[in-house]
């Protein structure tokens, strides 16, 4: 199988899945190294495919039909995580990802798929239970979220509220 066919098959696998798949699993499936899969994913991303890199592997960001997505840059301390996320979901938004741009490691992020206050609560409980630090601690509070809404009006309302609370940078 040539590299173009392999990338087409990788995309097909991602499109059929709702959960992340690791580079190691894809490498085994195609009998290539993990590094080749990482390069294939980079090439697929360069072709404007919306592939999210997570700690558990790669997942295709499928978005909801007719939805609006926007990457926003925000800044706040760890104590404001709950308020920020609740603000977004209370106004009808979904927080698909979080990421930071680290000066050494580049962009580091994770799929969140937070859609409700219940999801926010579970997310915060997971941080507390594991003792892990939230990503925003790596960059003094600066981080990004990919937010999805049903329409532009909802997105504008979320951005206005985040701006009013002092969280929104861009």
How is this structure best summarized?
This protein is an alpha+beta fold and 170 residues long.
What is the terminal separation in angstroms? 44 Å
| The CATH superfamily title of the largest domain | 3H domain
Helix/sheet category: alpha+beta
How would the global form be characterised?
globular
Q: Give the tally of β-strands.
A: 6
The SSE string, one letter per element, is: HHHEEEHEEHEH
Count of DSSP H/I helices: 6
Write the CATH architecture name of the largest domain. Answer: 2-Layer Sandwich
Strand content: 15-25%
- What is the count of distinct domains? 2
Q: For the largest sheet, list the strands in their spatial order.
A: 3-6-4-5
Task: Report on the architecture of this protein.
By secondary structure, the chain is α+β, with helices and mostly antiparallel strands. The chain has two domains: 58 residues, Winged helix-like DNA-binding domain superfamily/Winged helix DNA-binding domain (Arc Repressor Mutant, subunit A, Orthogonal Bundle), CATH 1.10.10; 97 residues, 3H domain (Histidine-containing Protein, Chain: A, 2-Layer Sandwich). It has six helices and six strands; from the N terminus they run H-H-H-E-E-E-H-E-E-H-E-H. The strands form two sheets. The protein has a four-stranded antiparallel sheet. Helix 1 crosses helix 3 and helix 2 crosses helix 3. The protein is globular and about 55 Å long.
């Amino acid at each position: 199988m040539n590299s173009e066919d392999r990338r087409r098959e990788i995309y097909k696998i991602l499109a059929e899945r709702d959960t992340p798949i690791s580079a190691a699993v894809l490498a085994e499936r195609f009998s290539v190294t993990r590094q080749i899969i990482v390069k294939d994913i980079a090439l697929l991303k360069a072709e404007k495919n919306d592939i999210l890199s997570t700690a558990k592997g790669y997942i295709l960001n499928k978005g909801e039909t007719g939805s609006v997505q926007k990457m926003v840059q925000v800044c706040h301390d760890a104590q404001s995580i709950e308020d920020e996320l609740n603000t977004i979901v209370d106004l009808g938004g979904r927080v698909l990802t979080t990421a930071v741009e680290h000066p050494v490691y580049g962009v580091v992020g994770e799929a969140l798929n937070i859609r409700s206050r219940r999801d926010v609560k579970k997310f915060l409980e997971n941080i507390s239970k594991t003792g892990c630090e939230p990503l925003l601690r790596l960059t003094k509070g600066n981080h990004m979220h990919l937010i999805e809404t049903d329409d532009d009006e909802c997105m504008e309302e979320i951005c206005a509220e985040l701006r009013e609370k002092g969280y929104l940078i861009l």
